[in-house]
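Retro notes
What went well: the complex prediction finally ran end to end.
Inputs used:
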Amino acid sequence: MQELVAYTAYLTIETPQRYEIRDITDDVERVRAEAKLWDGYVLVSTMHITSSIFVNDHESGLWQDIMTWLEALAPNKPGYQHHLTGEDNADAHLKRMLLGHQVLVPVTEGKLDLGPWERVHYGEFDGRRPKRVLLKALGIAKAQARG
Amino acid sequence: MQELVAYTAYLTIETPQRYEIRDITDDVERVRAEAKLWDGYVLVSTMHITSSIFVNDHESGLWQDIMTWLEALAPNKPGYQHHLTGEDNADAHLKRMLLGHQVLVPVTEGKLDLGPWERVHYGEFDGRRPKRVLLKALGIAKAQARG
Amino acid sequence: MQELVAYTAYLTIETPQRYEIRDITDDVERVRAEAKLWDGYVLVSTMHITSSIFVNDHESGLWQDIMTWLEALAPNKPGYQHHLTGEDNADAHLKRMLLGHQVLVPVTEGKLDLGPWERVHYGEFDGRRPKRVLLKALGIAKAQARG
């Protein structure tokens, strides 16, 4: 008999820097284990519109390249219409769309089913305050042994 | 006993402008309610390859910034190979990839589990004709009271 | 009685070119059929961090436009910090983020529920070696006839 799993957890992240990248793969695995998810998906989705969730290499040089590249394509500068509201973070709203705001992590036989270099990252573009990330497991628990 | 939910609805959107952004969060909630989804996901996915689904701020200044920015990164101009087919919308195919074509909206305890500023948007880059958006709820209905 | 489906398959792709786009929609349908998925999702996710999965038009001119455009926004050039590790593919890590690394294909009544022009593509930016793509179906099988 299959048992359905639907389990939700929230992570709070407050980065000391305005712009920062953090590897959160271990948090995803922790939530998968809490959920007892055997087969299915874990959705990882930032609840803020100035940060990203993305999968890429855990390599600090690449992280720098990503930040330099995002700044070139979506610069932090004056003149955005959004700033007429009093905000100064229009670049963060754009940067977050380049990397995306959520990923779906597949789970197979009770493990995150990721390639050897795939790591789940949180990208912050307007930090120094607490932000929430939602993790929702959906799928099936391990079938009970029939004895 | 858990009851599985798999429910699909389609939305038709025809924008008066070629380029337009529209908040469709209320449609997502309506479909969630029709589906009686208590815990799970609602996939929101455009069925056309010249439009986007994305999550960002409901703020008209930012919407302008997004359109200006997309035009800078993926301009509407002649010279694309795709135009040799007779089309004139290669920029729309590129713009839609920058913002993405689908999002997964988490549902927890019968509500869209979004952050305070998260809103689901439809981005049109080749409008003035009817386009379809698919919404598919997957998860569980509220457990029945046992009395 | 609903029967839950959770089914996983892997595809191996080795492109002769370093940069290449390939339509893999038929593979997605094959996996859907193997899974006997009637209603739900098929996640299609590359397991490598230098390639993409995206939905767009099956049109060779557009494929060229996409590659030209990616090269303009995330050029293959020296000077990336990531190259200090001995790698030469930082551009591939960036290009893959512009197009995204996964899509969720909706399935309704036993068919991929795609718009008329939607096709699922694999985008390779560091090819000439075997890469794996994960496909995971989640949802329900067709209800049994009650006789």
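What we learned: The beta strands of chain C are 4-13, 20-23, 39-46, 51-56, 102-108, 111-112, 119-124, 131-140.
What to try next: split runs per interface for comparison.
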